Amino acid sequence: MNLKKNLLTLAALACCAGTQATDHTFTLNASKAGAPIQKTMYGIFYEDINFAGDGGLYAEMVKNRSFEFPNRLQGWKTFGQVEVKDDGPFERNPHYVRLRWSGHNDKYTGIENEGFFGISIVKGKEYRISFWARTPEGGTSNIRVAVDNVASMGETQTIVKADVKVDSREWKKYQAVFTAPRSFDGAVLRLILMEGAKGAERNVTTDLEHVSLFPVDTWKGRENGVRKDLAQHLADLKPGVFRFPGGCIVEGTDLETRFQWKNSVGPVENRPLNENRWRDTFLHRLFPDYYQSYGLGFYEFFLLCEDFGCEPLPVISVGLSCQFQNRDPEKAGVHVPLDELDSYIQDALDLVEFANGDPSTPWGKVRAEMGHPEPFNLHYLGVGNEQWDYKDNAAFTDRLRKFNAALRAKYPALKLIGTTGPDSEGEKFNMLQPKMKELKVDLYDEHFYRDEQWFLGTADKNKYPTCGALRYDKYDRKGPKVFAGEYACHGKGKKWNHFETSLYEAAFMTGFERNADIVHMCTYAPLFAHVKGWQWRPDMIWYDNTRSFRTVSYYVQQLYSTYKGTNVLSLTMDKKPVAGQPGQDGLFASAVIDKGMNAVIVKIANTSDEEQTVNIKWQGKKDDLKFSSAYAEVLHCDEPDAENSLDNPKKIEPRMVEIKLGEPIRIGAKTFGVYVFQRHEDLPNEAEE
What we know:
Blueprint: H1 3-17, E1 22-29, E2 42-45, E3 76-79, E4 81-85, E5 96-100, E6 109-113, E7 119-121, E8 126-134, E9 141-148, E10 158-166, E11 172-179, E12 184-193, E13 206-215, H2 228-236, E14 241-244, E15 274-275, E16 291-292, H3 298-308, E17 311-316, H4 342-356, H5 362-369, E18 380-383, H6 395-410, E19 415-419, H7 427-438, E20 443-450, H8 452-456, E21 481-489, H9 499-514, E22 519-524, E23 528-530, E24 541-543, E25 548-550, H10 552-562, E26 567-569, E27 571-573, E28 576-577, E29 587-594, E30 599-606, E31 612-619, E32 627-636, E33 655-658, E34 665-667, E35 671-679
Helix pairs in contact: 4-5, 9-10
């Protein structure tokens, strides 16, 4: 189609449309490629909150599988002659249960596990039961494993069962695979000592340890694997970076309960239990059985990063336990003294060796023995999470300085990430931001959970001077780069995953894209939430034991990542960035080129209650303006408070719309769209500065 004719047609249509909707003209230079967009620009942040790990992404179905909860039998019921012992085969998980004959032919001995909000199975799916066992006094016993519906009105409680013979005085791993004959939610798992069963003897004492139940069909078929549906959601985000394992669990409620990476590698049976930082945080949503098995550890995370083709970004403790929960910085035992940080610093150095070291190194050898002799190619490391300094005590930055010195000396190419604290502005932020530049961190991590007005940029500028999509337009270009590590729009009085706040997140993110020269990473938070175990919302992906759904916020992040582009393009309205400014009628927009797709991509959010019309005034070289086709992916809902759910997971999702070249773009009220203009010719090889 002739470009001149296109522009004339567009102008004519704009005149006709003026009586129906306000006309807006965007000026877009399609030839001058600006700042490159980093591969890491859009990513994912994982923290074990809302039962994101055990009971969530980690596919283990048995709670307290190694009997290591402080209440050794929490999650279990016992019947018959059951005793907890503490001299088991695994040094860091020494507890197990001993099952003896009940003492009567018509009585049974066994244990029953409640799982995470029940044991749930799906018809036709295979499940692997495994446990370590022995008959310490000799003989052969039979352990019946059954998934039972204890409230059944049928002739039997048992949905499916398998028999496992234990025939060794020494500890051995036993397993069996069964296929679910029907779907059921809320069952229990029973292991029963079957006296005198075929091939088994009577009065044979049997010890059980590390009782585990996994679906066979995990992500990539890994035996110690993650849920396939949840991992697929992550893969479909096309992440460029994956931050883990937190978040506040990096810090712990106290030093003892911080996330320690060395406890999360090696044989899964010997990874010690950790109390979850979020267990006691919210009295109104209390989960006293919230612990981490460390089955989903650093090795598994590095594997996921490799699967997704994204950069791993581990975060390690800087020796400060959670400052929100430990308000007295001088209290003994709360934080590690500066002169006692050596072991913490060594942990950081050893983590890099575990990820990148040759198998001949101590920690590279551990990785190789776990099945991955090749390095994971770690390039980034976060030191500390939401820490801060006090007026007369540089609690965080003094510690960060020591970590940086040691890490830079041994790994000079490693990119280090600091923090600006828990707030998007205010005393802590204003104190920390210049200190991050002074310490020469490569990026600093900003967190902001704010309301609608903050994301729209209409909040009180005295209180929130850098709110909205213009936040980064005036940032220091010579300082550290920005990692927006945790953000989400929290509606006032409506803290759930409704459409409207997701739209405002999309509007705000145009500022990330426009300022890609300094914004190098961003990750929405939190990532996961179990519908029966959540403590914090909104969240990106929700699930129960067998189903899951993507929120509108998920689709916003996915659209940005899928259409990330390679370089920023200049897009303005009346020579100003399109960021909901006066006269822009609630419009937010940004533009990129994608050299791989050979396309120009424009993202537009209409946050107003009225339909808007957008005309694009194209600038650039003639060959760069030869478009062959155009289409859009659009998110819209007539109900601003509506959200997706397990029962209606696709209520709101992107829909593909054809765009006619040369015609104005009509954008419905409360709508976010990604508009893709496909080119005929190849884009320039080099970006122009």
